[in-house]
Write a structure and sequence with these properties.
The protein has about 400 residues and is an alpha/beta fold. The chain has 12 helices and 19 strands. The longest helix is centred in the last third of the chain and has 31 residues. The chain is globular, with a radius of gyration of 21 Å. Keywords: Monooxygenase, Oxidoreductase.
C-alpha cells in the first residue's frame, strides 16, 4: 500500500469528526481533530437513529460496538394520525440488523472515547477563522492565534460549516424547514412497551415520535411548526418551562401518547435541539487540499433518519480514497462515490418535512397514506425499499482512480 496522504486536520469534534479521524488513522493517515468549543458538548443534542448502513460503515473501521452499546434496537416505525389511528408501518428490511436509537450526547461521547483509543487526539478551543494552501501543505488558522498544518484538511464542522464557506463563499446556506425540534427522556412513561418500534404521531399542530421500553422508561421528540426561524441559542433563551407549556398546548387536542408524555416530562430533562434545517445541493465538495464530509456537505433533516449514518459512510469512503489515491484524485473519487446517493436521500426527507410543516398536507396525508401504503407494498418490486439500508462498504477493496460524479441522483 502506497500512502499518498500522511497527515490530516479534521475540523469539528461532533459526531462525524471522531469517525473521520478514526477512518483516516486506519488508512494510515495521522489525523487530529480540532473542535471550536472549549470542551466536549456532552449535553447537546436530542435523539437519533443509526440505520443498518451506518452501523455497517462503523464496523468497517472498528467502531460499530459503540452504537450497539449505547443504542436501543428499533425494528421499524409506526405512523399514526392525531387520533391515534395507524396510518402505516415501515419495518427494517428482512436480513438486516435493527436500527439503533441513541441519544446524541451518549453517541458523541462514545465515539470520541473510541477514537482516542485508536490514537486520535482532539484539541478544544480551536475556532477556525481562515485557511491557507500552497503546493505542499494546508494550514488552519484559529481564533486564538494558533495554527496547524497538514497534507489535507477535512471539514466535518456540521451544517453551518465554516470550512464550506471558506472554500466557496457562494456555497448554499442551510434552509429552515419550518420546524423547531425538542426531545426528552422520560423515566416512567406509565405506558406499555412500543415493542422496539418508533411511533410517530402526526398531530394537529405538532408531530411527536416516541419509544417506550419494557421497563416503561422511554423518550420522545417533537417537531413544532414555527414560522420564523430561531437559532438554538434563541430557542434555549425562551426557557424549558415556557417551551413545555407551548408543546403541551400544541398537542392538547391530540388523542395520542404525546399529551401524557409531555405531562410526565421534567423541565430539567427537556432538550431544545433548535431549527430543523436542510442543505441544498452543494456544488463544491473540495478545493485544493480541503474536502467536506457529513452535514458540512450533505445535511439531511432528522426526518430521513439517515444524517449520522450518511456521515459515517462518507467518512469511510473518504478514508479509502485517500488511502489509495493522491489527494486530488481521491477527492474526485470520493465525490463520485457519494453525491448521487446522499442527494437522493435528502430529497426524500425534504418531502417529509413539507408534510409535517403544512396543516393542509396533514389532512391529505391522513386520508391518503393508508391507501398509498397498501398500493406501494403491492407495486414495489422485492428489495426496492432496501436501497437506503442495505449499503455495504468493502474497506479492503481498492478504489479506482476514475469514479464519475453524477449530480442529482434519481
Amino acid at each position: 500500500m502506497t500512502v499518498h496522504t500522511r497527515t490530516a486536520l479534521v475540523i469539528g469534534g461532533g459526531v462525524a469528526g471522531p469517525v473521520v479521524a478514526t477512518a483516516l488513522r486506519r488508512a494510515g493517515v495521522e489525523a487530529t481533530v480540532y473542535e471550536a468549543y472549549d470542551s466536549a458538548a456532552d449535553g447537546v443534542g436530542g435523539g437519533l437513529s443509526i440505520a443498518p448502513n451506518g452501523q455497517d460503515a462503523l464496523d468497517a473501521i472498528g467502531l460499530g460496538d459503540v452504537v450497539r452499546e449505547v443504542g436501543r434496537p428499533l425494528a421499524g416505525t409506526v405512523l399514526r394520525s392525531w387520533k391515534g389511528a395507524v396510518l402505516g408501518e415501515i419495518s427494517v428490511p428482512p436480513g438486516l440488523p435493527d436500527l439503533r436509537f441513541v441519544w446524541r450526547a451518549e453517541l458523541s461521547r462514545g465515539l470520541r472515547d473510541a477514537a482516542a483509543g485508536h490514537g486520535v487526539r482532539t484539541v478544544y478551543g480551536k475556532r477556525l477563522e481562515r485557511i491557507e494552501q500552497d503546493g505542499e501543505r494546508v494550514t488552519a488558522h484559529f481564533a486564538d492565534g494558533t495554527s496547524a498544518s497538514a497534507d489535507v484538511l477535512v471539514g466535518a464542522d456540521g451544517i453551518r460549516s465554516t470550512v464550506r464557506r471558506l472554500i466557496d463563499p457562494a456555497a448554499p446556506r442551510p434552509e429552515y424547514a419550518g420546524l423547531l425540534g425538542f426531545a426528552a427522556p422520560v423515566a416512567d412513561t406509565g405506558m406499555a412497551s412500543t415493542g422496539r418500534r418508533l411511533n410517530i404521531s402526526y398531530g394537529r399542530r405538532a408531530s411527536c415520535g416516541y419509544l417506550v421500553y419494557d421497563d416503561s422508561s422511554g423518550g420522545w421528540f417533537m417537531n413544532l411548526p414555527h414560522r420564523e426561524p430561531m437559532t438554538v441559542a434563541q430557542a434555549r433563551a425562551v426557557g424549558t418551562d415556557q417551551w413545555l407549556r407551548t408543546l403541551r398546548e400544541a398537542v392538547a387536542d391530540d388523542r395520542s401518547a404525546a399529551p401524557e408524555l409531555l405531562r410526565r416530562t421534567d423541565p430539567a430533562d427537556l432538550l431544545i435541539t433548535g431549527p430543523l434545517e436542510t442543505l441544498s445541493t452543494v456544488p463544491t465538495w473540495s478545493r485544493g487540499r480541503v474536502v467536506l464530509v457529513g452535514d458540512a456537505v450533505h445535511a439531511t433533516s432528522p426526518s430521513a433518519g439517515q444524517g449520522a449514518s450518511l456521515a459515517f459512510e462518507s467518512a469511510v469512503q473518504l478514508a479509502r480514497c485517500l488511502r489509495d489515491l493522491p489527494y486530488a484524485e481521491a477527492f474526485v473519487a470520493y465525490e463520485g462515490l457519494r453525491r448521487e446517493r446522499v442527494e437522493r436521500i435528502i430529497a426524500a426527507a425534504a418531502r417529509t418535512n413539507r408534510n409535517k410543516a403544512n396543516a393542509s398536507a396533514r389532512i391529505v396525508r391522513d386520508v391518503l397514506l393508508p391507501i398509498t401504503m397498501r398500493i406501494a407494498m403491492k407495486m414495489l418490486r422485492p428489495g426496492k425499499m432496501t436501497w437506503q439500508f442495505d449499503h455495504h462498504i468493502d474497506w479492503d477493496a481498492p478504489v479506482p482512480g476514475t469514479v464519475p460524479v453524477r449530480a442529482g441522483g434519481a
